[in-house]
Amino acid sequence: MAGRPARPEVIWSRPERAGRGPRPAYTRADIAAAAVRLADAGGLDAVSMRHVAAELGCGTMSLYNYVPRKEDLYELMVDAVSGEHELWEPSGDWRADMLRVGHQSRDLMRRHTWLPRLMSGVYGFSPNVLRYLEHCLGCLDPLEASYGTKMELIAMVNAVVTMYVSNELAVAERTRSLPWSEEQETAVRIAYLGSQIATGAYPRLAASFTQDAGPIDLEAVFERALGRVLDGFAPRG
């Protein structure tokens, strides 16, 4: 197929523009922006080479001259939204800075709900992602640990954020598909759970619900989860 490489390559090592010839009609930024618009509106499944080409106003075969594979298109998308990360001057408090990183990543995934599906090391070495990783390592300068350990910390923070956002999005999607209100669904499930606990077959669960009665603060749960990951990397005094 036109534009497809004959061997594996990283799209960032491929010249965006040949040294000679006419200026390309589209830049990688144009293509990434079109794909992100489609994904933001209709999810990742709405992104195809044909749909992106239509969004740009060009032929599908022409798009392959810019982006040889769909995987390259995904990489452009991840890099584009990774550029939305705020890269601040580290405060000197590595734990506070990494909590801030976690919250910012969560906000990013909430804005681009397709992003958790592409959170993979496969797309982890694009220009904006590399700048993000370098920033995180800068935040971790005060932490006495090897760079390998620091990279594990960053990966675990990203994993916790991705898991939480994926669950939030799944719940929201399911709620939208219900023919009744979320409150009605929750009430029915709580009533069923109460009936099962009342049988006495689950004494530990009963004690848990009695001890921690009241609504769950999901924001506090998220904060504690991140905090516990970071605490696991803190030097032992």
Mean of pLDDT = 89
**Annotation field: number of helices:** 10
Biggest β-sheet strands, sense, barrel = none
Q: CATH superfamily of the largest domain, called what? A: Tetracycline Repressor, domain 2
Beta-strand percent range? under 5%
- The total count of strands amounts to 0
* End-to-end separation: 60 Å
Helix share bin = 55-70%
The structure class reads mainly alpha
So what's the CATH class of the largest domain?
A: Mainly Alpha
Instruction: Indicate the CATH architecture of the largest domain.
Output: Orthogonal Bundle
Succession of helices and strands: HHHHHHHHHH
The tally of domains stands at 2
Runs with pLDDT <50, length 5+? none
Mass-distribution shape: flat
CATH names the topology of the largest domain as Tetracycline Repressor, domain 2
Radius of gyration: 23 Å
Explain what this protein looks like in three dimensions.
- With 237 residues, the protein is mainly alpha-helical.
- It has two domains: 11-82, Arc Repressor Mutant, subunit A (Orthogonal Bundle); 94-231, Orthogonal Bundle (Tetracycline Repressor, domain 2), CATH 1.10.357.10.
- It contains ten helices and no strands.
- The chain has helices spanning 28-42, 49-56, 60-64, 70-82, 94-111, 127-139, 147-177, 182-197, 203-211, 218-231.
- Helix 1 crosses helix 2 (49-56), helix 4 (70-82) packs across helix 6 and helix 5 crosses helix 10 (218-231).
- The chain is flat, with a radius of gyration of 23 Å.
- The termini are far apart.
